[in-house]
Amino acid sequence: MRRKVLVLLVVLSVMGVVASCTGGRRLDAPPGTGKVVIDADMGELNDDAQAMFLLAAAEGVEVLGVTTVGGNTWPEEGAAYALRQLELIGRTDIPVVTGATNVPAPREDYGGALDRPRPASHRALAVPPHGGYAAVEPAAGSASDFIAEQVKRHPGEVTVFALGPATNLARAVRAHPEMIPLVKEVVYLGDGAESAEFNRWFDPEASRIVFAAPFKRELVVPLEAAERLIMDGKTYERVVAGPQTPVRKLFEELQGPLFANDPEHRVPVWDAVAAAAFLRPEIVSDADGPTVLDVDQDRFWDLYVARIGSNTLCC
Q1: 3: number of CA atoms within 13 Å, CB side?
Q2: What is the mean pLDDT of residues 222-249?
């Protein structure tokens, strides 16, 4: 008996050493490829735009379209920003569909789109997108129908990125329940817990609907995991180094003056973390099933810097 106990203690000790060396639990997922639809509360070089740039530049990824949802921006603002930024990188082949929005009761802290009047159209913003409005127009139809149509056209092949409030995806699920088993995967920024997290707060009922839907596969990046990564001045310099590309130029023009005026300036990259976890699951240093708990910061920033400005069409 004593020998068995000693053996057991040795085994447990070895397991402890292995666990300490290997770190947390890895994300059980292959590298992300295939067709994607990006549903986002798109801003001007915000974290949604950064995720879009990463996915548009990724080999083996086909962006079928971008749908905009109310959240940090109104859907019309999001459409204007998405169209302009896709135009900048030479990807006007990617359709943009103006989506829906919930209008929650205002709260005292940051309210996103609620902090300003809703524009009448994607060409009536209070301040036009940087560089002016895009020449192309949004695609016709609703965002929820577009999501469902793409999923049904490519059964088992489409990953839906739910990067903003879940309004559009929830409407697609309700109107087209037959699409649910045909979705390859859903990638969420934010989890399904009842909380004051922005995406959840902006449309809590939509969040409940999509997290209750029996999708085959999900990748969940809670805000707590994503907000540990934030761009500082040193990382900004890495991003803009190298040959000029449209995205690097956009960083220089929009973020450069802010870093120059304030050394403590920081840029959130939340949705970019979700895109990176999809593209390269090995950057996830700890996971609980499909939920990301922590990310290897060095691996993330190496991937981010290499990909975010990789589009070679410039200016």
Answers
A1: 0
A2: 95
